[in-house]
Write a structure and sequence with these properties.
The protein is an alpha/beta fold and 416 residues long. The protein has 15 helices and 17 strands. A 7-stranded mixed sheet has the order 4-10-9-8-7-5-6, sandwiched between helices. Helix 3 runs antiparallel to helix 11, helix 4 packs across helix 11 and helix 12 runs parallel beside helix 15. The chain binds pyridoxal-5'-phosphate. Pyridoxal-5'-phosphate binds next to helix 5.
Length: 416
Amino acid sequence: MSTQASRGDIAAFDVARIRAGFPILSRQVHGKPLVYFDNANTSQKPIEVIDAVDRFYRETNANVARAVHSLGEAATSAYEGARDKIARFINAPTRDEVIFTSGTTQAMNTVAYSYALPRLQPGDEILVTTMEHHANIVPWQLVAARTGAKVIAAPITQSGELIVEEFIARLNPRVKLAGVTHVSNVLGTINPIRELAKACRARGIPLLVDGSQAAPHLAIDVQALGCDFYALTGHKLYGPTGTGVLWARKELLAEMPPFFGGGEMIRTVSFDGTTFADAPHKFEAGTPNIAGFVGLGAAIDYVNRIGLDTIGAIEGELAAYMSDALKSVPGLRLFGEAKDKAAVFSFLIDGVHAHDLATLLDHEGVAVRSGHHCAHPLMQFYGVPATARASLAFYNTREEIDAFIAAIAKVRKLLA
Ligand code: PLP
């Protein structure tokens, strides 16, 4: 995790005040205080985000880019203002490279159908890694099946680190696109994107980065990373569901035909043919999730106010505490022990099924995810059908980790 924040920033971090700004965190589940450790699945929302969405519908609601009346202008300016905020947040060279999507999944599919499909030939390859989410596997398989291309994967170590030399060794002239997660949703591994991007660039292969799990925790600078596409999802970034971003270099966007057609993405339409608007609008057919993006803009403001350096440092301390605490649990197997790792802990306990564990923990007020985490190939690599996963955010506390460990002890006793 990033530890750029000074001790002063961390000392000034008042977790009780922060938590008071997330209404859901004060609720109870099964009569116990909620311990929300499912942040990698979706994060909770601060009052600023909830209020921004509420205020939009109460005061500004109108469609965007198609009305000259006051509400239409206010809605358009709030929606496009969110694009400016996101462009700055990821250090995009221009706001026109920021495409709004419904989430990472739609971002990946846009690249699959608008970039990959028109280019792929029989025998071509798309390179991913063993630790990818299905969103960074299945769209490539769909376009590969149509074109005779295939999806190949670079291997990882048992401790959950990408074997970089193996990734680079697979960058042969048949590879037309590489896709790598910035942070693994199962293992927490932070991948060395700059190094991978450099290797891809040297061979003229575009690199797409799945930033779903990175954007809420690490400062993202797409120019410094050197990648070609970057996808993220708003609901993990403390914003509303149904919001996401695809960033792509403008030269690539200019060459990509649109994937969805309809209103708001055209320049002219006649029955003889249609010409398209420039990016980003070319990729945003139809009425978008306006209130959602206004909320995502508020989420970005919120994260900026706390600072990703501070968030990284707080989560780093929580992760170290969690890691030590989990080591004290008898019979616990941890998946993902990369040197560079986010606060995501996948685990199994001897003799306990992950779903039983998650269900019983829920009765203690602790929300963790159980299942394959949309990462079947990774589960196959470890030879397990499922794991339990506790994923932390800066609003979690050591007391919650203690409560989680106590709940695990109770569950183990129950099932012994
Ligand atoms: N990629 C990763 C690494 C994820 O963790 C997720 C969500 O869990 C996704 C992609 C898909 O995101 P969404 O469902 O918001 O499109």
